[in-house]
Each structure stands twice: as C-alpha cells, then as structure tokens.
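To fix ideas, we quote verbatim a fold written out as tokens:
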Amino acid sequence: MEMARAISFFKDNKMKFEQRYSDKIIERGEGYIDSVEYCIKINDTIYGQVQGSRKYKTEVDLKSFDGDCSCPYGTNCKHAVALYLIYKKGDFWDADDFIKNLDKMSHNELKEMILSKLQDNPDWIKKYNLRKSTNKSDLLISFKKNFSSELISEAEAVLPDLTFEQLIELHNYISKNYDELSEKILEENEDDEYSNGYDDYDDEEYDKELYDLNELISEIIVKRAISENKVDRILKNEYLRDEIIENAESFIKYKEKIKKIFRKHECLQFLINLKNPILAEIKNFVDDSDKTILYSSLEEKTELIKEIAKSLNDKTLLFSAALYEKDLKTIIENFGRFEAAINERHELINYLGEIIDIFDKNKLKNGEIARKLLNRHIGGRYNKRQLTYLASQISDFEFIKKNFKKENIETDVVLLERLAQIDKEKTLSFVKNKKDLLGRHWTDIIPLFSFLKKYYQAQTIKEYVRDNQDTFRTSSHLKKHLKEECGIFISQTQGNLIVEVKG
C-alpha cells in the first residue's frame, strides 16, 4: 500500500520533479540508489544518508521536491534524487505513525521506552551529565591551559549552551592550535598503559574526535550567524571559510563582500558552489594555479565545468568533463589530451574501464587510443573483456608483452592469448623463459595452463611440465586443480612424472 501510494505520488508530480532536477542529475541519481543507507519520512520531508565520496546528510521536501545535501553540490543533487527514488520504491521508514503513537503513550510507557533505549545508548546519560556539570567558562580556559582528549566530549556536550562569541573563540583556538592539540592526543595514546604505542592507532584517525568537534563548531557558528544576522562577524574569519563555501547558497546576498574579502581561489570555490553560478563571473577568478579546483568539482558540477572549459577553450578540462559524462564524441575528438588530463586529475583513471566499455559497445577501433588505455592497466585495472577489446586492436608484440604482468595473470592471460594470435612460437618462448610464472600460488598457475591448452598441443604442455618438474612434484593442490579445471593429469612413477592431457 505504501509503495503504491509513493509510486502514484511520483507519477502525479513527475513534471514538477523534472523541473527541479536535470536529466543528467536524475541519471546520476539512479546510479546512487544502492548508496542510500537509510530513508526516513517525517511529515512532508524525507531524511537520509547517502554514501558518495563521503557520507552525505540529505533531505528532500516532498511538496516542492527541493533537495538539500551536505555534498559540495548543496541543493537538488544526485544524492537527493537517489534518496527520493528510494522513497518512491517504498524503501523508507515512516516516522509519522511512530510520532502519533507517542501521543497515545502514558507517562510510564514513555519512561519505559526511554529506559530501554538508554541501555543501548548509555552515551546519552554521559552527554546529559556533562552538559549539566560542565562550567562553560572554565571549558574555554581548560582548552587553552590544560587540554586533554576528555575535554572534547565535554565541549561537544555543551556546544548548544555556548554563546556565539564563545563558539568563535573555541573554534579559533582549536583551528589555530590544531597540530599542537593533536600531538597531545597522540601522546596520551602512547602513554596509555594499555596501549602498545603509536602502532595501535590509525595515523589518520587518532585525532578524529577533535576534527569532528571543530567541524561541528564551524557548522553551528555559520547556522547561527545566518539566523541571528551576524554574517558580517564571520566573513573575515579565515577558519570559517570552508564552511561558508560549502553553504554558499545561504550567503549569496553577501557575494560582493565575499569577492572583496576572500582569496581568489576561495572566491572561485564559493561561486562554483552557488545553486545558479554565473559563468562570466567565475571566469574572472580562474587561472592556471586554480585549475585543480575545477578538476575537483568535476563530479558534482560536470555541466558547469564543461561550460567553463568551452569558454576558456581548455581542451584538457573539456576532455576530463567528457570522461565523467561518458561523452563518446568529445572523448574521441580530444583524446590527444588524455595524458594531460590524467596528470591533472589522477582520479580520472577510475573511469577508464567504463570508457573502454563504451568504446567496445560502439565498436570503436583505434589502435592509438587502445595503446594509451592499455598503458594505464596499472595494478590490474581492467577486466578480461576490456583487455581483450584493447589488445585486439594492437599488433605490436613487444608492446603487449611489456604490459603483461604475472601478478595479474588471472586477467592478463588474455594478453598472452593476443600474443599467441600474433606469434605462437615467440609467445611460447616468452612463457618458457619467464620462470617466475610458476613460482606463485596454484590459483595463478591454472590460468596459464588453461591458456597453454587452448593454443598449444598436448606434447608442448607435457614438455613444459617436465622442464619445470620440481614445481609439480610436491604440490598436491596444484595437481588436483590442474586435473579438475584443465583436464591435465600429473602423476609420479618411480621418480618420473607422467603427464596426460585430456580433451
């Protein structure tokens, strides 16, 4: 019933929804459905968490369809689309019934429910007591004179009770002295009698609570500055710039002031993060040193970055945007910028497998492009089908051989197959001379023998086994799997190996 209602609701409001979200954003949102960790409906709003490059808090107004998200895009983003599509499917928790039921519960029932939840969330009591017992003025003094990790929990508990000025003072102090405070936390961990020292702690996580506290403070300051009309008080505060930039749309009426106060690259980030950014305005803040900002915004602001690239006649940036959009025509036209784009934004490598699939689907044949892509098969990046497609366009034996890696033989075996198609004898010689192919686990040897059986006679396989008989004498697992998976039987009689190839 709930699912049917949601689907009907969506159909009736399809036009309204599509007015808020472009086709591209909707398409990307569809790809993030499985990344929605939860969806909760409260009155006419759905709330959720969506896993992107990090976890984003997302909400969608079911009347207007406006989405709000903690991602860089900010509003009406792909995460909001994904959250709404999950709601549309009926995969959500309806809090309305729960809230209505609270009104019907007696005092004792409410008390019992709270007590049961306290057992699973004892930190509620801790936070309550800390908030009650902590002296707000003393907290600031302690942070400055006697800082310890225990003060982080106390500070978090009392944040709602601090004045605007106290919040700014605390945030400024933590930001200015962050390295020193982090070092104190690390020293505490190392001195702990139950600790084995630094190795017990992730070198990126030991200061997480301090980092999260400072982020929370900046978030509260910015929200209160807006609600209490104190924005002018924070614009010149360098430690709050990131939070202001992330919430750019809320500061749009201060845009001209920000352009005068912020550094050039900060202005660029701010303008890009606006809901309706102005291209001509953005161009004034772009130079070569700030290109990294454009590249880092590619995923969330692809359309905008593409327009900037066209306006600047920046073919490398245009090619990069095309990779994100999987725009085949633009990719082909600008493929000469391939290496430059990868060097500018190394994360683009993660899209190459998908690009190969698009090329394959469209039956594109281009040896030069295939060579460039195959050169990026670092660490076994591509799957068998993708490697087969690339290798099929290349007839350079030495080039393919160079890209074959024994560490990736499960996939790279298709490169051996392509070598055999070009020159079987040279390939066999290469395999025989590459002794370390047989020095790995049986799971890495099986693909090799599957290849040998496919391209060479049984006699060749027998000779290869006998030439490397030490490998096969002792490994019962290898012999077992060769028999089961390759139809190659190896036995031993009076010290001699007997090899039989079936099929």
Remarks:
- The radius of gyration is 31 Å.
